[in-house]
Amino acid sequence: MINPADQIPEATIARLPGYLRALMELAERGVTRVSSTELAKAAGVQSALLRRDLSHFGSYGTRGVGYEVPVLVKEIGEHVGSGNSWPVMVVGVGNLGRALVSHSELFDPDFRLVALVDNDPQVVGSTIAGVTVVAADQLEQEIATRHPRIVIITTPVAAAQEVCTRVVDAGVNSVLNFAPTTLSAPDGVTVRTVDLGQELHILAFHEARRVAVQAGAAPVMPAQEKSQ
Amino acid sequence: MINPADQIPEATIARLPGYLRALMELAERGVTRVSSTELAKAAGVQSALLRRDLSHFGSYGTRGVGYEVPVLVKEIGEHVGSGNSWPVMVVGVGNLGRALVSHSELFDPDFRLVALVDNDPQVVGSTIAGVTVVAADQLEQEIATRHPRIVIITTPVAAAQEVCTRVVDAGVNSVLNFAPTTLSAPDGVTVRTVDLGQELHILAFHEARRVAVQAGAAPVMPAQEKSQ
DNA sequence: CGCTGTGAATTATTTCACAGCA
DNA sequence: TGCTGTGAAATAATTCACAGCG
């Protein structure tokens, strides 16, 4: 076993929620035991990688047998903060912000919405998912009162950096950014950016590549009526 | 210069859209020339990494000077499929699906929504963003008619794999999945999954870690107003 | 016997650091 | 001179493959 205090690879961390999800599905189906091969398949990774990932936290399996599902759920769950109901604030209550907070799956059960902020007077004061939207100038006030541990930014690009700076100054260390821009934050603050346009462009890259490959040799015809 | 035909690292591909975005911003501000250092900073990467990434495609810079912004915009744009207006279909018109198609920034200008599919009779027939929602059993029909190159899945988990299989069978090679589940698809098909709950759990992992670290020594207190 | 946990090998990605061109 | 493009080195992540335990 490897010392749990050593640095967990970021790539491993990013896979843990996937493992947990796969385990939950198994548990729901009444499965109480899995081999690394089965769980890896459910999570879409190689079995050796799964075992390596788990080994960073300790030995939870039984040789010749596999893993007890409840044991792994508990272990991984602890690491990704399950059962804590982390308080979350959302800044920017436009289409996307509203969709996210209405997305029941998202906040159940490990996260709870505690504050909503927007700068549109039309929106301020309205209640969404049981939370009343406050004005942008109340942001620091709201953080002091509601103590969110995670802030989701769903503002336009123009506002995102300022919001990020202000929430970090107010003591928040974790930011999930949906604005398509690079945010800078001091060391020790975790910022993750989800850029939907970027995802589409990555797919487009591969699509463009497929066409280019066909131009040379034609390996497999993808879409029957190929390029329309 | 490295042969453009050799394999572009996936990590490089994932950064290209970010470079393009940074370049657009510069272009808008009237900047016509950048050094790798400046552009790298705008995109949030190291300058050597930017240069290495670009070198996979060829030499577009001038030693001692830097890069011409329009040249790079064109080059990178070509690779990520800018100016093609890729046709996109969205399956699942719930909160999230609706928010995505209403998110004007997302589809401008390199992607265009060509089809919407849902299985809710309440929703089928309605028009969103200029596109009429068709029933789930029309999915193959709609693909044959509208020729989407990319399909966005915003259905519940239970439906996601079936949708994925059907769209791939109908000839689609690129899928952007928002359902929190692992999708399997044949080789040659690109599937990217954006899992919002997973993102929150990754942040929670780091939050939990910060607390654990403090248990030993107490470096910085997270969620109160210390550093205003 | 079957499956975990992990050294060792491999592969991928990033960074260093500098030769060489404009 | 200043900055690109890139070998070479360093680091990170993954996979192989098998010893060893239940």
Search tags:
homodimer, alpha/beta, 9 helices, DNA-binding
How does this model look, in words?
Chain A has 228 residues and is of the alpha/beta class. Helices cover 44% and strands 18% of the residues of chain A. Chain A contains nine helices and ten strands. Chain A has helices at residues 10-28, 36-43, 47-55, 69-79, 95-102, 104-107, 139-146, 157-169, 196-216; strands at 33-34, 61-62, 66-68, 86-91, 111-118, 127-128, 131-135, 150-153, 174-177, 190-193. In chain A, the strands form two sheets. A seven-stranded mixed beta sheet of chain A has the order 6-7-5-4-8-9-10. Chain A has a three-stranded antiparallel beta sheet with strand order 1-3-2. In chain A, strand 2 (61-62) and strand 3 (66-68) form a beta hairpin. In chain A, helix 1 (10-28) packs across helix 2 and helix 2 crosses helix 3 (47-55). The longest helix of chain A is centred in the last third of the chain and has 21 residues, at 196-216. Residues 217-228 of chain A have low confidence and may be disordered. Chains A and B meet through helix 1, helix 5, helix 7, strand 9 and helix 9 of A and helix 1, helix 5, strand 9 and helix 9 of B. Chain A binds a DNA duplex (22 and 22 nucleotides) through residues 1-2, 9-12, 35-37, 46-49, 51-52, 54-55, 59, 61-67.
